[in-house]
Write a structure and sequence with these properties.
By secondary structure, the chain is an all-alpha fold. The chain is 88% helix and 0% strand.
Length: 170
């Protein structure tokens, strides 16, 4: 037990681990900056913003397929992100309907706390199912972060597409 702990501590201090974490951080920040800039310029066309989020989700999935040997092992993280994004977007929209901008912010904050727990249950269930099928996760900082981010973008984008479609009918 003590030997495993020492090996883990040594690995966490290693240059390879720090380089991998740093390059993952740079990749996620780069993707985030592009996402923020595009959404900033398209924010006035609120009816298309959901499609933009779904588009970025698809781009992320394509990138994940390119950098991952077995895409199926990322399903648990994708599920977490999708459930989290979907439920957070729904709660934020409800908050916006009740209390305007402040309601949306509070709804998103409270919604995120609630959906982290709910999403974690789904992620754990999918991870257990993958283990039973003999598919062990091959997580890296980049694949974990990007999988959750992509799932989140896709889920929240779909919610916005449905919300604006329903609102435009009335």
């Amino acid at each position: 037990m003590k030997r495993a702990k020492n090996n883990l501590e040594r690995e966490l201090r290693s240059k390879k681990f720090k380089d991998n974490l740093f390059s993952s951080l740079i990749s996620i920040i780069g993707f985030s900056i592009v996402l923020i800039v595009v959404c900033y310029f398209l924010l006035s066309q609120y009816k298309t913003i959901g499609l933009v989020l779904v588009f970025f989700g698809i781009i992320g999935i394509i990138f994940l397929k390119l950098i991952t040997k077995r895409f199926i092992v990322l399903v648990a993280d994708l599920t977490y992100g999708f459930v989290n994004g979907t439920l957070t977007a729904i709660i934020a929209l409800i908050g916006a309907g009740i209390g305007g901008v402040l309601g949306a912010v509070v709804g998103a904050l409270i919604g995120n706390a609630i959906t982290d727990g709910i999403s974690g249950m789904f992620e754990g269930e999918v991870a257990e199912l993958l283990k039973k099928k003999g598919l062990h996760e091959e997580r890296t900082p980049l694949t974990t972060a990007l999988s959750k981010m992509v799932g989140n973008l896709t889920g929240s984008g779909i919610v916005l597409v449905f919300a604006w479609t329903i609102l435009s009918l009335f």
